[in-house]
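Sample intake — Helicase
Collected from: Sphingomonas ginsenosidimutans
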Amino acid sequence: MAQGDEPVRALSRGEAIRLAADTPVILLNAPLVGQRLGYADLSGLDVLELFAFLHPARFMVPTPKGVAQATGLTPPGSDADVAPFLLEATARMLAVTDTDWPEREGAWTAAQSLTRARWAWAPVVTPRLRKPAQNERWLFTRLPEWSEAAPRPAPRTVTLDDRQVAERLTTLTGAGAEARGGQRAYAAAAAGAFAPRVAREVPNLVLAEAGTGIGKTLGYLAPASLWAEQAGGAVWISTYTKALQRQLGHETTRLHPNRAIRKAKVVTRKGRENYLCLLNLEDALQGGFAGRAAILAHLVARWAAYTDDGDMVGGDLPGWLTTLFRRNGSAALTDRRGECIYAGCPHYRKCFIERAARASAEADLVIANHALVMVNAARGRELATRPTRYVFDEGHHLFDAADAMFGTALTGQETIELRRWIVGPEGGSRGRRRGLQARLSDVAGYDEAGARAITDIVAAAGSLAADGWLARIAEGAPFGAIEHLLAAVRGLAYARAEQDAEAGYGLETELAAPSPELIEAAAPAAHALDALVRPMVALGKRLEAVLAEAPDWMDGPARARIEGAIASLSWRAETVAGWLALLARIGGPADDRFVDWLAVDRVEGREFDMGLHRRWVDPTIPFVETVLKPAHGALVTSATLTGGGDWSIAEARVGAPHLARAPERFAAPSPFDYATQAEVLIVTDVKRGDVPGLANAYARLIEASAGGALGLFTAIRRLRAVHARIADRLSRAGLPLHAQHVDPVDTGTLVDIFRDDPHSSLLGTDALRDGVDVPGDSLRLVVMEGVPWPKPTVLHAARRMADAGPGGGGGNTYDDRIVRARLAQAFGRLIRRRDDNGLFVLLSSAMPSRLLDAFPPGVPVARVPLDEAIVRVRQRLSSTRAIGHEAAHDIA
């Protein structure tokens, strides 16, 4: 603790809690500090909140080192120096209020609102802000409006010249950059996806596997940007993770260094639930939020005035901001329930979502994600600007993305969301949410048939699950046809699920030989859903007729609102139709194209959802029909495209067998010398299921490497158990430990913190196994708790038996391919550049030798006891440890 001119002194946990409870203290990341003190309600003067107020839309790594970089100070050399450093950093931040800093506009007005909301920093900040001579503009008047533009002409038919592609690549890499033959060959192969299409529904499909270090991002940006310029069309670059989306945005600065030009030429697109909803924000600012949520709303409003795109998830809103408020209210600031009223919104012309959609129609490059690409194609969104060329980076995830997109789930949560969309607020619920009848009141007053359809839809929605449905089902008192169906699902799942019902995990069982109770409940549920979908289809037709007739009252905004309603109705009607098809399976014949099952979803024994599920055995079938066949060309690329198998596996995983023309193949091995840069150790004496032994192994390995470790788990419960056992031990050794599902910090920020400190370590699950790019000393050790076998779910069992889509062979061969791919992805986190050096440790004596080919050829693999593994880690990484300590000494 540091206080005034008094010497710094250490506090016990109890003293720290008492001090923080009695006196406002300056701290860094209150939720994280509170969690580590065991005092969840810890609050005070959080430096991160002050930074978010003073510098909205700027990012700062939420660590002392990050604060130092943001304020231009020298980072603290030891833990004892952090407290006085935070005092100095606070003074440095507050000093900007004496200047005309770039984000001054709006600060005085925001401070007045935050004072009324009792923000802890308000008494400190507000007196330092001088009142402007003129009233500051309200946020909603400051935001720029988008404007309509004429439809973009169809792309011209062009053929890329190989020489021009090579020249563009040279421009992107820089004239003085090292010539990489693999990258040049990759760019030439990628250009094949931009050749003119020769037949309808036969796209030019190129599959390109580029090992780590090839430089595939610039390799495909070269032909993609060249084609966009020459053809006058947009190329959609799709990723699986938000981390790669953000990375691609940074890479395009090489293509367009000028920020204004880049903003016009390159647009990042995500699902609408990622963007700030201005109408929700206005509701929050005008009393819809209270307490800490109200403070968050005002800080988000500060950010909204300076953001580039309004993206709250992975954009320029610092990922740590919402976690400071324990995500209290952040979800309500986005459109997560599909309740947008489009042109009926007073902020429609300034809407971030609409602006992004229009900007992407004129852009050369649109950086999207697999889910959005599939949603737009499947739901017929933005047909006038439908892309003809795609680049699917992280292409090995296309199968998984399609699996999620084209599945069907008739569950309590899904049905209650549909009910809320139709009916609007019920009971004592608050907020601006409006039902279908209120959103289309003008149409109802104009069109009698439309009004009747709306009335029928609202009446039929009464059969869907309603608030309190979980409690009613648990008590044996379901209400309505759908709740009775869900109760029957729950009863059969508990009766047949092979999992231990007392273990607290989710339960599932095949939809086969249904019980009499389930069959009896299915018929009324189907009748209720049929009564719902019929008027939904009828209303859609009436809305289309209203558009065609164009009555006098229909101006541009009204037309846009009705078009939005048609689109929303269409995909919701398709959803209900999918539910009906699933119900027809109960007591009926099975369809070998699908896998159907019943599930009760639970977290630590607490039920939160239940229902029926359907997935395609091969989800690339609908992906090919909706996305690939309408396209003219697509590049599917990854460092592990054939991971776990060969080219036939890669082709099956992206749906190539369902196209009339075989794809082009290209492969470029990594240029790294894995044989000397890396080593794989398989630890033979850590018993499976021995959590204390597992925790001891993680602690000793991290101590031996002096941090820089990425620990990967296949179960959240084991991750938490290991973290609880080793965090204090490592902290005392000066080795910070961070963890997904433990720390109240978003995953992206956790990775930033990990990257920023070579002595920190990070524990995580699948999200960190793929897509994390941490080159250098910050990641020099990867530890996996065991062989990443696939979970024995109903869906996995069905695909294992059929072995459709992902190749052939079935059984253990199918499982082995999945494990090889996961091991390859995890190993890929270790070596990211030519001077990286590290070890990959697998804590499993049961690792089969047949799976060792998952690692790059030439990598030394040794089976050793834990003690020897510790010695090898210490020896191999001794130079890294010394460098890290020298760097820390220099900083001090």
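Post-analysis note: Residues 409-603 form one domain.
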